[in-house]
Amino acid sequence: MTSIETTNVPNRAESRVLAIVPAYNEEESLVATIEELQRVAPDIDYVVVNDGSRDGTLALCKASGFNYVSHPTNLGLTGGVQTGMKYALRHGYDMAIQFDADGQHNPAYIASLVADMESTGADIVVGSRFVTEEKPKSLRMLGSNLISGMIKLTTGKRIMDPTSGMRLYNARAVKLFATEDWLSPEPDTLACLIRRGFKVDEVQVSMRERSAGESYLNLSRSISYMANTCMSILFSQWFRS
């Protein structure tokens, strides 16, 4: 079992929502992201999950006084999100939102996702770029449409932005992600959970370009990601426990 380094837990009993901020080599954008989150959504608690970064991400967390958990080695996005879910479960949060460290997610939309979850009873609310806006024509969006089609085929529900990383989870979903190792913050997990009775909703948001650094998803990796995700939705997820 991998050990983790953690800071003290903030004593803010009134807070109900935790922003989980996975961070791998995000020294160029992390400070601006957390400062904006605190400024725009001051009632939202957060935890940065430093996922074994090899740059100055951990040092920035310490120097800036951020609330953080640190992995000694890189576990990947799934491991980072699961650590955040364990933190949320341990400290009794009612909701947890996955929030990118690279500046693409706008914290001004968190309130809309929370309001939707409270009014609809959804287990997961996706911050979607394409509820009221059309997808641009590109190879990546073609892949997004294909994944949407696979989810619709296997669940009967269409998710317009299945690859969005801005997702709000209720306590039921938080507990599942914190205790089940096979769950990942990916579209195939959405499909699996929908089939198992979880309610998933979408709220229109806008996303920005990455403020610094580079995405690991180049063209070849994007194609591989789309293909693997579709195969998992069609086949692998049916056999997950």
Characteristic terms for this protein:
single chain, 241 residues, alpha/beta, Spore Coat Polysaccharide Biosynthesis Protein SpsA, Chain A, eight-stranded mixed sheet, 8 strands
Tally of distinct domains = 1
Question: Architecture, according to CATH?
Answer: Alpha-Beta Complex
The number of distinct helices, counting runs of at least 4 residues, comes to 8
Highest CATH level, the class:
Alpha Beta
Which sheet architecture does the biggest sheet show?
A: 8 strands, mixed
Within the largest sheet, what's the order of strands?
A: 1-4-3-2-5-7-6-8
The CATH topology name reads Spore Coat Polysaccharide Biosynthesis Protein SpsA, Chain A
What's the Cα radius of gyration? 17 Å
Distance between the termini: 21 Å
- Which class do the helix and strand fractions yield? alpha/beta
Strand content: 15-25%
Q: Going by CATH, what is the homologous superfamily? A: Spore Coat Polysaccharide Biosynthesis Protein SpsA, Chain A
Strand tally = 8
Q: What overall geometry do the principal axes of the alpha carbons give? A: globular
Instruction: Give the topology string: H per helix, E per strand.
Output: EEHEHEHEHEHEHHEH
Give the oligomeric state of the chains in this entry, treating copies of one chain as homo and distinct chains as hetero: single chain
Family: Belongs to the glycosyltransferase 2 family.
GO molecular function, one term: transferase activity
Keywords: Transferase
InterPro entries: Glyco_trans_2-like (IPR001173), Glycosyltransferase_2 (IPR050256), Nucleotide-diphossugar_trans (IPR029044)
